[in-house]
Amino acid sequence: MTALLLRDLRLALRAGGGFGLGLAFFLIVTMLVPFSVGPEAALLQAIAPGVLWLGALLACLLSLDRLLALDLEDGSLELLLTAPLPLEGALAVKALAHWLTTGLPLVLAAPFLGVMLQLAAPGHLWLLTSLALGTPALSVIGMFGAALTVGIKRGGLLLSLLVLPLYIPTLIFGAEVARRGSAGLDPSTPLLMLAGLTLAVVALMPFAAATVLRIGLR
Amino acid sequence: MSLWQYANPVKFLALSARVQPVLWTLAAVFTSVGLLWGFFGTPDDARQGSTVKIIYLHVPSALMAINAWFMMLVASLIWLIRRHHVSALAAKAAAPVGLVMTLIALVTGAIWGQPMWGTWWAWDPRLTSFLILFLFYLGYIALWQAVEDPDTAADLTSVLCLVGSVFAVLSRYAVQFWNQGLHQGTSIPVATGNRSVADVFFYPLVMAMLGFGLLFLALVVYRTGTEIRLRRTSALQARMNRRA
């Protein structure tokens, strides 16, 4: 499992693309917001938590179709299928690698982009917390979507159609934590809901992903 | 004599040929009586005027939109557990019907909402969760169309239906948390029996609900038959190509 994790991390770092691309996309989406709604500080401050969450979610979505497609092309996915390591574990580790290379940089970059969008000072901590708690769920749900569409040619658009509705609960709770936090309200209720959601998804989704991947590669 | 004998496509087709005339007749009678009675035979509401009459389309279609997904869920489970092809095809056949029911509920709701709430659309929990349900139907149908091998497609869509159901329920409660909204709660609670709809409106509404249920059943039986015949045709074509 460690070997698989290190392999995926090395591939993501050395092959380039995935690592920086998500971050650049996040930056661009954030940058486009003032152009579309206007530069008034009060308006930007009000929508900043939601916009940042949406940007992070879309940046996460962007890299999903490469999650399993590259492994399918070079045949390592079939090796994983026959390996002594349970497929559920392998997929969980691959989702972890995806989070470390895509989700974590987004979490760390979010406060800087928050400054650009005039996010209120107490909001930074809660934005960071909610993204740190929520992005693992995005990676694991995305793994399910990637496993579902792995055998389909040109499955990228289908993948978004399938995965985005599944992202809705995470987005609601995550953005609510950031919104309440930046408005100075108590964010503990949505925070607990978000944490519970992430734990449940991390525990259960690898099984669903492994099931559909076995069907897809049959 | 058991229910499972209809997992045999031949038996299913024979049964569907026998029950379809009955189903279509009953569906036509109940739907038209319910709707005509509702539209022309009931008085205007004291406060809502004649706009209340859209309830006879709105409530039955919303009811069937949710129940169609439940039916797909049960059919998917039967396919995953017992591998009956008819079950998988029934789930496939029900999806577009459910999609249209969701669309009817959303559109009639918007038309009703405009004079009553002064807006076509509000980000209300019920409205939003129906929109999410609509997206789930779209994704489910798109996945059926994208996968070429029919058994793989049935497997993948069944798992999607299971996972989607969990997330649909989750979204239902998540949006409730997010916004309390304009839409009223249920007016016909079955458990307590304290319904807040007067008898004059209630009886035609029940007729329309029954009619929509029967219509859904008739459509699903009909479309499942079509899917079975399509499957047979493609099997025959494959056999002919092999010989040629």
Topology:
The complex is a heterodimer of chains A (218) and B (244).
Chain A: H1 2-14, H2 18-37, H3 41-62, H4 66-73, H5 76-82, H6 87-116, H7 123-148, H8 156-182, H9 188-216
Chain B: H1 9-40, H2 55-82, H3 85-117, H4 125-146, H5 150-178, H6 199-243
Descriptive keywords:
heterodimer, A: 218 residues, mainly alpha, 0% strand, elongated, B: 244 residues, globular
Structural features, described:
The complex is a heterodimer of chains A (about 220) and B (about 240). Chain A is mainly α and about 220 residues long. Chain A has one domain (about 1-215). Chain A contains nine helices and no strands. Chain B has one domain (about 10-45, about 55-180, about 200-244). Chain B is about 75% helix and about 0% strand. The longest helix of chain B is centred in the C-terminal third of the chain and has 45 residues, at about 200-244. Chain B contains six helices and no strands. The chains are: A mainly alpha (about 220), B mainly alpha (about 240). At the A-B interface, helix 8 and helix 9 of A face helix 4 and helix 5 of B.
H/E series of chain A: HHHHHHHHH
**Total beta strands of chain A:** 0
Helical fraction of chain A equals over 70%
Structural category of chain A: mainly alpha
How much of the polypeptide of chain A forms β-strand, as a percent range? under 5%
Q: What value does the average pLDDT of chain A take?
A: 88
Give the rounded overall mean pLDDT of chain B.
87
Taken together, the total number of domains of chain A comes to: 1
**Count of DSSP-assigned helices of chain A:** 9
Query: What oligomeric state is this?
Result: heterodimer
Helix content of chain B: over 70%
Largest interface: A-B, 26 and 24 residues
Structural class of chain B: mainly alpha
Main pleated sheet of chain A? none
What is the number of domains of chain B? Answer: 1
Strand content of chain B: under 5%
Q: What Rg of chain A, in angstroms, do the CA atoms define?
A: 18 Å
User: CA-to-CA gap between the ends of chain A?
Assistant: 23 Å
Would you report the number of β strands of chain B? 0
Q: List the uncertain runs of chain B.
A: none
